[in-house]
């Protein structure tokens, strides 16, 4: 069972470079999310998508763009990377419902130098 | 804005002890609450989910309770083992009628070490 798959797992970028984190889920979920995790700050929501074709800002959207390419895929783009974007990024997916768990990918470790 | 607090931030106990991890949240209009486990360098594994209409959930040696009115949840681990060592995260999902972003609001976690 693949669940939520993220690529790449590790990436080092130079300040100002751009890159895209890819995420795919095979559970036919409508909702997908991108979080970042930083020491002392916990996990914070960057963007989410309630369904194919829709995206909304979370708590920390500045410096990021997202695309919900289809129901399976939700990508996160850094247009001009900054050292403050050094973090671990997690993609997640869920159905919306009181009893529905949110499932997380394994994470992408990004370092901006 | 929903805020989630976990106490203690770190805990070290001998193997075999029963222990309680605490989670509090400021907005009681929650949809559900989840407890996760995170091992170093790994993703999040869902342990238990409690719906807003429920009071507790159990899975093996784990029991999670929810008191919505007081904004509190506890995770009880019975007969702790060294393999339980990890960071435990509490997260709440707001009810849709509240508006705002969907998704989970996380606490900063409790780092648990079980000494052999």
How would you explain this protein's 3D organization?
- The complex is a heterodimer of chains A (113) and B (116).
- Chain A has strands spanning 4-7, 10-13, 19-25, 31-38, 42-49, 56-57, 64-68, 74-78, 87-94, 103-104, 108-112.
- Chain A is mainly beta and 113 residues long.
- In chain A, strands 2, 4, 5, 6, 9, 10 and 11 form a 7-stranded mixed beta sheet that branches. A 4-stranded antiparallel beta sheet of chain A has the order 1-3-8-7, with no helix packed on it.
- The mean pLDDT of chain A is 93.
- Chain B has 116 residues and is an all-beta fold.
- In chain B, the strands form 2 sheets. In chain B, strands 2, 4, 5, 9, 10 and 11 form a 6-stranded mixed beta sheet that branches. Chain B has a 5-stranded antiparallel beta sheet with strand order 1-3-8-7-6, with no helix packed on it.
- The mean pLDDT of chain B is 92.
- Chain A binds chain B through residues 31, 33, 35, 40-45, 48, 50, 56-59, 90, 92, 96, 98-107, and chain B through 31-32, 34, 36, 42-44, 46, 49, 51-53, 89, 91, 93, 96, 101-109.
Give a concise summary.
By secondary structure, chain A is mostly beta strands.
List the helices and strands and how they pair.
The complex is a heterodimer of chains A (113) and B (116).
Chain A lengths: L3 E4 L2 E4 L5 E7 L5 E8 L3 E8 L6 E2 L6 E5 L5 E5 L8 E8 L8 E2 L3 E5 L1
Chain B lengths: L3 E4 L2 E5 L4 E7 L4 E9 L5 E8 L4 E4 L2 E6 L4 E6 L8 E9 L9 E3 L3 E6 L1
Parallel strand pairs in B: 2-11
Antiparallel strand pairs in B: 1-3, 3-8, 4-5, 4-9, 6-7, 7-8, 9-10, 9-11
Helicity level of chain B: under 10%
**Structural class, from helix and strand content of chain B?**
mainly beta
* Main sheet makeup of chain A: 7 strands, mixed
Tally of alpha and pi helices of chain B = 0
The quaternary structure here is heterodimer
Bulk shape of chain A = globular
Low-confidence stretches of chain B: none
């Amino acid at each position: 069972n693949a669940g939520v798959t993220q690529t790449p797992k590790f990436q080092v970028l130079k300040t100002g470079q751009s890159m895209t984190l890819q995420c795919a889920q095979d559970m036919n979920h409508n909702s997908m999310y991108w979080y970042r995790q930083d020491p002392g700050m916990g996990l914070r929501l960057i963007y989410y998508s309630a369904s194919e074709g829709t995206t909304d800002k979370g708590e920390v959207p500045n410096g990021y763009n997202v695309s919900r390419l289809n129901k399976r895929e939700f990508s996160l783009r850094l247009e001009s990377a900054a050292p403050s974007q050094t973090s671990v990024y997690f993609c997640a997916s869920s159905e919306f419902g009181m009893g529905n768990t949110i499932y997380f990918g394994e994470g992408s470790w990004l370092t901006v130098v | 804005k929903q805020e989630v607090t976990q106490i203690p931030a770190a805990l070290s106990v001998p193997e075999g002890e029963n222990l309680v991890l605490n989670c509090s949240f400021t907005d009681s209009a929650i949809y559900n609450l989840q407890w996760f486990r995170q091992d170093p360098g790994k993703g999040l594994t869902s342990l238990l989910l409690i719906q807003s209409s429920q009071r507790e959930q159990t899975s093996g040696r784990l029991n999670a309770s929810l008191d919505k009115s007081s904004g509190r949840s506890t995770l009880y681990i019975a007969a702790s083992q060294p393999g339980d060592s990890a960071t435990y995260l509490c997260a709440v999902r707001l009810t849709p009628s509240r508006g705002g972003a969907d998704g989970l609001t996380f606490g900063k976690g409790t780092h648990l070490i079980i000494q052999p």
